[in-house]
Design brief:
single chain, 4 helices, mainly alpha, about 100 residues
Length: about 100
Amino acid sequence: MTGLRQDLDAISEILHETFKVEGFKRDYDATFAKVASILRRYGIEENPRNLRFRFILCMQEFFDGMPQDQWRVKDPAFVKQSEEFAISRFRDWVIEQVA
């Protein structure tokens, strides 16, 4: 389990580093290629674009959980909260795939 926990932390760090970059400068292909290489250790063969889509679904879950008039997409704290939620859900998905 230590290996998985370390890999989950590595995935989280990769995603956090990506979100530190301005939106239009982010390299999502490279980000999810790194994630895909980690998942291969567990026999999970996923295309990086599919992983990116999976992450988008995790992000969408955050926004689906509240009325649209409560979205504060120009508030950095709100955006950070949505990113953290999506990373957490993505980690949960990885655990489900490994189990």
